[in-house]
Design brief:
Order of helices and strands: HHHEEEEE
Shape: elongated
Oligomer: single chain
Helix content: 25-40%
Strand order of the largest sheet: 4-3-2-1-5
Low-confidence stretches: none
Number of domains: 2
Radius of gyration: 19 Å
Distance between the termini: 24 Å
Number of helices: 3
Mean pLDDT: 85
C-alpha cells in the first residue's frame, strides 16, 4: 500500500477514473466505472478501491476525518450481543460515502449468540455495518447496539 506520498482527494480520484473509462472506451475497451476505480487504486499502489477510499478519508489532508479508523489486520475489542470479545479485522468495506463501514471480524473465542439455557449457538466470525462511532444501528431487545467496538 502506498502511504508515503500525499493522497489525492476522492473527487480527484473519481475524476481520474471517469477520464480513464472514457479513454479506454475510445480505444474499444469497455469498462465499468467501478472497474476504472479499481484500476486507479492499483496504479496508486493500493489493493483495491475500498482500501484507497478508506486511506484517503483517513489521510491528514482529508476534509472528512472519520472518528473510526480501522484497517485490515487491526486488533479490536468490544461487545457483541452483550458479550466481550477480542478480534482481528479480516474484512473492511466503506459504505454510504464513508459514513459506515462493513466490517468482518474473526473473534479469538466464539460467543454464544443464543440466550436460552438448553441451547447454544456459537459464532466466531461476525459481519456487521457500523457507523463512525463503532456501533451498529441494529439493537438487541434491551436497546443496546448488537456490536460495539471499543474506540
Amino acid at each position: 500500500m502506498n502511504t508515503s506520498s500525499i493522497l489525492p482527494s476522492l473527487e480527484m480520484v473519481k475524476s481520474q477514473a471517469k477520464s480513464l473509462k472514457r479513454s479506454l472506451s475510445a480505444d474499444g475497451h469497455i469498462v465499468s466505472h467501478s472497474q476504472s476505480l479499481e484500476l486507479i487504486a492499483q496504479q496508486l499502489g493500493f489493493k483495491d478501491w475500498n482500501v484507497l477510499s478508506a486511506a484517503i478519508r483517513q489521510s491528514p489532508g482529508s476534509n472528512k476525518a472519520p472518528e473510526l479508523s480501522l484497517g485490515l489486520g487491526d486488533r479490536v475489542t468490544g461487545t457483541y450481543l452483550g458479550q466481550a470479545f477480542a478480534a482481528d479485522v479480516i474484512g473492511l468495506r466503506v459504505l454510504d460515502g464513508g459514513k459506515k463501514q462493513r466490517v468482518t471480524l474473526h473473534l479469538d473465542q466464539p460467543v454464544d449468540v443464543v440466550k436460552f439455557d438448553s441451547f447454544s449457538a456459537f459464532r466466531q466470525r461476525i459481519n456487521a455495518n457500523i457507523g463512525l462511532d463503532g456501533k451498529t444501528s441494529e439493537k438487541t431487545s434491551d436497546g443496546r447496539p448488537q456490536l460495539e467496538l471499543t474506540l
